[in-house]
Amino acid sequence: MSSLFSPIQLGHLQLNNRVAMAPMTRARIQNAQDAADENTAIYYQQRASAGLLTTEGSPISRQGQGFLYIPGIYNRQHVHGWQQTTKAVHEKGGKIFIQLWHVGRMSHTSLQPEGQSPVSSVDTQANGTCFAFDENGEAGRVAVSSARGLTVAEIKDVIADYVKAAKYAIDAGFDGVEIHAANGYLIEQFINAGINTRSDSYGAQTIDNRLRFALEVTDAVCNAIGSDRTGIRISPFGRFSDMPAFDDEELTWTTLGQELATRNLAYVHLNNQDVPDGSTTLPDGFVEKFRAAYKGVLMIAGGFDKSSAERYLSTGMVDMVAFGRPYIGNPDLVERMANGWPLNESIREFFYGGDNRGYIDYPYYQQK
Ligand SMILES: Cc1cc2nc3c(=O)[nH]c(=O)nc-3n(C[C@H](O)[C@H](O)[C@H](O)COP(=O)(O)O)c2cc1C
């Protein structure tokens, strides 16, 4: 039986434990280049005892951006910025993947190059908001703009952006990348049959067509940096970002699992989203079915604490557990869980944006 604190092989890496820090946008970047800075490095270094850190979502292009004050991975300044983080984490013996993010339709013209419309699988407008500039130039939550569907030639350009970003990530010293195919962003806007009504080979008629973009991105990134440096995050049945339910939903995700299983990836990461009524989105029995389709390293996130993580691991259904909110307030989460020490509260008010308060000032546990 594997415990949270037992080592695991992940691609080319030996991890010290099975605890991952889930990707979390913190919106703390205040420089004009949108480059990770010295505080980003401190934040991740403080958490380096996780078996694996995954960074906040990092846009692969200006077009892929749907949030202000977040660090990009699409130019040399971004590479230099992130180098501080990877060096700081590696000095502490940690391992770190960067999450590659394209939000698709979940953006606003004020964030897009030359104020253009955001892009998606089809012409569409989500019922939702993003963090951008309003009509007075003030930063805040605004309704997302209407998006236009990408042409096939433009889809190839976006895939090329993922490849460029993955190569920049390796230049920046990351141990690998996590493709963000979760939470209703661009890749899921292709997978979801309720959104994707295209009539071409990326279109809705078949599951293979709707998975094509996800798999082409995955293959292109694997070719560029190696499959053992490539992970992917998905959120089956997730409803964030106005994702509708659709026919064949389970079969779509298990088919994706079977396809990913042939690619020898570092890992697949399932995000079990919260629902406001207190439940979560993965239906009973789904993880077992996904596990039957995907035999590689499987990680799960969503509402875990030490005991539920241990219980889940002991079933063999997953190999690692990622923690999100508990990591905000507890840089030494691994040590706290291993020793049964109490956790700090993660204060919601400081989750997104602001200064270093609630970011790099949470204390380590002090033994009396
Ligand atoms: C402040 C905050 C920012 C987040 N940003 C991201 C993100 O950039 N990418 C992503 O895939 N998930 C993001 N998530 C979701 C988390 O990775 C995680 O799946 C979620 O918080 C559930 O895990 P938890 O119950 O352990 O917090 C974010 C969550 C929080 C609380």
Automatic annotation (TrEMBL):
It holds the Pfam family Oxidored_FMN. Residues 3-344 form the NADH:flavin oxidoreductase/NADH oxidase N-terminal domain. It comes from the Bacteria. CDD domains: OYE_like_FMN (cd02933). Gene3D superfamilies: Aldolase class I. PANTHER family: NADH OXIDOREDUCTASE-RELATED, NADPH DEHYDROGENASE 2-RELATED. This is Alkene reductase. It comes from Vibrio olivae.
